[in-house]
Q: What sequence folds into this?
């Protein structure tokens, strides 16, 4: 079974796409964020180490993040979908050294028009949940636009890293998770998953 890493900007629903892909291919979903939160919640030795960094007002190190992810991946027997990780070349290198190399890395991308529409929808959704957010509409639009620009600046070196190693694919991240998963399945499965 394939091992797949999904990467995308902040406005693409990676969690739903990863779940749909995993269901279609019989893979296990691994979220770096969820894995890490579970370590902290369960107060494992790794979680305690992370808490130490957080209480000191520091970022958790890449080494610690990769240890948590590598431990989770080591428990998977029949292929995995790792989403939202790695985010940097350093994390990708450490993940490779840990012995967990994705067969395919798929980046979900949005065109400029799709990005604009996704930002509008995200702000409107927030306004529906909390009408008082409406007074901050312009600020939210700018915040999401900045997050996407910042992501693009950070992701280019990671793209280059995976392009040099061959497994990078790019697909549209626009649409509902079923549409996105339908684009992912043929790439990730190489004919081994049901549509």
A:
């Amino acid at each position: 079974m394939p091992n797949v890493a999904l990467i995308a900007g902040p406005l693409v629903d990676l969690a739903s796409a990863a779940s749909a892909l995993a269901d279609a291919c019989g893979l296990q979903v691994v979220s770096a964020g969820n894995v890490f939160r579970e370590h902290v919640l369960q107060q494992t030795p790794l979680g305690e180490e992370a808490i130490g960094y957080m209480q000191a007002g520091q970022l958790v190190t890449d080494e610690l993040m990769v240890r948590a992810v590598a431990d989770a991946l080591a428990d998977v027997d029949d292929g995995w979908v790792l989403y939202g990780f790695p985010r940097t070349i350093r994390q990708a290198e450490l993940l490779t050294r840990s012995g967990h190399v994705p067969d395919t890395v798929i980046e979900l991308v949005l065109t400029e028009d799709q990005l604009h529409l996704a930002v509008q929808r995200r702000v409107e959704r927030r306004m529906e949940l909390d009408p008082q957010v409406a007074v901050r509409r312009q600020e939210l639009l700018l915040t999401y636009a900045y997050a996407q620009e910042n992501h693009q600046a950070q992701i280019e070196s990671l793209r280059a890293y995976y392009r040099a190693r061959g497994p990078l694919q790019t697909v549209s991240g626009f649409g509902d998770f079923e549409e996105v998963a339908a684009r992912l399945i043929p790439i990730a499965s190489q004919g081994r998953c049901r549509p």
